Amino acid sequence: MTEPEKLPESDSPQVTNISHSDVQSVNAELVRMHQSDAETVTAEEVEIQDSTAGTVQASHVSVRDSILANVSAGEALLQDNLTGMVKAEKASVSGYTGAVVAGSAEVHNSMVGYVAGTDVHVEDSRTGILIARNVT
User: Closest Cα partner for 47 from 18, 22, 69, 10?
Assistant: First the structure.
């Protein structure tokens, strides 16, 4: 019997659209999720709506009305979410977040346990601990 060949990382799909599905791991250039669940999402760009995800790693992340455990991104925009941890160079969050660690962080209409960043802008929000060089 011959074993099927495993595809190298570079042969991952360019675009993956997931709707009304449960998946363990997704790896693509662009991932779009709608009303779905994923354990791990790795991509250049991620768009998530009305979904849940364990770990999201991407250059650009845009999430709305979802639940996420851990987000690691260059730029993250999270609107009306429940999120455990966000690590990003630039982050904008609203909703409920456990921790935000970012070079530049915007927190709007949120409750955040811990915010740390170089430049932090907070509006209509509550934070437990806020550590920043510049706060607006």
Answer: 18
> Considering only CA atoms, which of 119, 114, 118 is closest in space to residue 130?
114
CB 41 within 8 A of CB 26: yes
Can you say whether the dihedral through the CA atoms of 55, 61, 66, 70 is positive or negative?
A: positive
> How far is residue 93 from each of residues 2, 17, 27, 130, measured CA to CA in Å?
49, 24, 24, 14
* pLDDT at residue number 4: 41
Judged by DSSP in three states, 10 sits in: helix
Q: pLDDT digits over 62-111, tens only?
A: 999 999 999 999 999 999 999 999 999 999 999 999 999 999 999 999 99
Is the pTM higher than 0.85? The answer reads yes
85 in the Ramachandran plot: left (φ > 0), alpha (ψ -120 to 50) or beta? beta
